[in-house]
């Protein structure tokens, strides 16, 4: 049996908080990939990035679902259930060009 996410009902349409990782932009740090919180729109960096801001956002807020966001990739991840979430066509468009770093 395939693992299922118990939080998909909480996936919201959101407005991205920044054109890049919100915290990395503030401190001048680089990121590898971006993740978008599908509860509040926070844009953070992935676990391969030096600061793992998307995961830190989850730990601070409990918001479970992130979207692969650079570019929108059609998949999500649930931090709580530790499973992929297929977002299909329900991806969040970017607000403009996102700077590339690593």
Automatic annotation (TrEMBL):
Residue ranges of domain UBP-type in the record: 3-102
InterPro entries: Znf_RING/FYVE/PHD, Znf_UBP
One Pfam family of this chain: zf-UBP
Domain of life according to the entry: Bacteria
Annotated protein name in UniProt: UBP-type domain-containing protein
Classification of source organism: Bacteria, Pseudomonadati, Pseudomonadota, Betaproteobacteria, Burkholderiales
